[in-house]
Automatic annotation (TrEMBL):
The keyword DNA repair does not apply. Its main location: membrane. InterPro entries: UPF0014_fam (IPR005226). The lineage of its organism: Bacteria, Pseudomonadati, Pseudomonadota, Gammaproteobacteria, Chromatiales. The chain crosses the membrane at residues 6-26, 38-59, 65-83, 95-120, 132-150, 193-215, 227-248. Pfam families: UPF0014. It is found in: Membrane. It comes from Natronocella acetinitrilica. Belongs to the UPF0014 family. GO terms for cellular component: plasma membrane. It is a multi-pass membrane protein. This is ABC transport system permease protein.
Length: 268
């Protein structure tokens, strides 16, 4: 036992790994086509988390603002790439990456800095023990919201291009012509976060609160942190999705109010 937490050995982790291998075997026998994906995803989990453990230990030791900013920038760029790669019809010319990255920067970074500086208040405010996990949770959830919103927007415009062009021919401006698609896109981006809040405590126990309780934190304090984090995630995801969908929808039209689906590239 270490610091009130039961320490896990490698053989205990190997039991968990063997269960994933067993699941991959079952999916292979059932011809679900998921066996290889499960094994690759499991291997990536081990490698990525092992690397981040070394990185965080080094970062916690130096506790320097430039290194924290570098880590945050790398996390943001990877999240921007993931947003772009998850879209079936993506904007060409770097717009898909740019819109996703900038919207996540404006929402996640702003909310994280405000929370650190004015709500949680560690000294200094960029203390990596607080800043990196909080930013990671913000970026992870905002990435999902922005990716869902952008995918629904571009796919909706692609599928309903005749409807949109018909509205434009009737004299509507581009905002009115694509208004319902924009609303659906924003709603799609925010629904997972709203569902997570609605189910918290009655259907699921959020991971951060569970982790803190396992680490020995009093449940009441863990719940306070979880409530704060869920509110921050909701705000960050909401504003990130709204910004991305608004900018993305504008990019689908040119200055003469024409629908420009040639600015989309299908991922196949």
């Amino acid at each position: 036992m270490q610091g009130g937490v039961i320490e896990l050995s490698w053989w205990q982790l190997s039991i968990g790994a063997s269960l994933v291998v067993a699941l991959a075997g079952v999916t292979h026998l059932g011809r679900l086509g998921l066996g290889k994906d499960l094994l690759v995803a499991g291997l990536r989990t081990v490698i990525q988390l092992a690397i981040i453990a070394f990185v965080l230990e080094a970062l916690f030791a130096v506790a320097s603002l430039p290194w924290v900013a570098l880590m945050a920038t790398v996390m943001l760029l990877i999240a921007g790439y993931e947003v772009m790669s998850r879209q079936k019809h993506r904007l060409v010319g770097g717009w898909a990456f740019g819109i996703g990255t900038v919207s996540m920067f404006l929402s996640s970074f702003t909310v994280t800095v405000l929370a650190l500086a004015f709500i949680i208040g560690p000294e200094p405010w960029y203390t990596p023990q607080y800043a990196i996990p909080l930013l990671g949770m913000m970026l992870g959830n905002t990435m999902t919201g922005v990716a869902l919103g952008m995918d629904r927007l571009t796919d909706g415009a692609w599928r309903q291009r005749q409807v949109i062009e018909g509205r434009l021919m009737l004299g509507m401006d581009w905002r009115a012509a694509v208004a319902d698609i924009r609303r659906d896109a924003m709603r799609s981006g925010m629904i997972p976060t709203i569902n997570a809040m609605a189910a918290a405590g009655v259907v699921s126990l959020p991971g951060m609160m569970t982790g803190q309780i396992l680490a020995g934190t009093a449940p009441a304090l863990a719940v306070k942190y979880q409530i704060l984090v869920m509110f921050l995630i909701t705000v960050g995801t909401g504003f990130g999705t709204v910004v991305a969908v608004l900018v993305g929808s504008r990019r689908l039209f040119d200055g003469r109010q024409r629908l420009r689906l040639d600015r989309l590239k299908s991922s196949g």
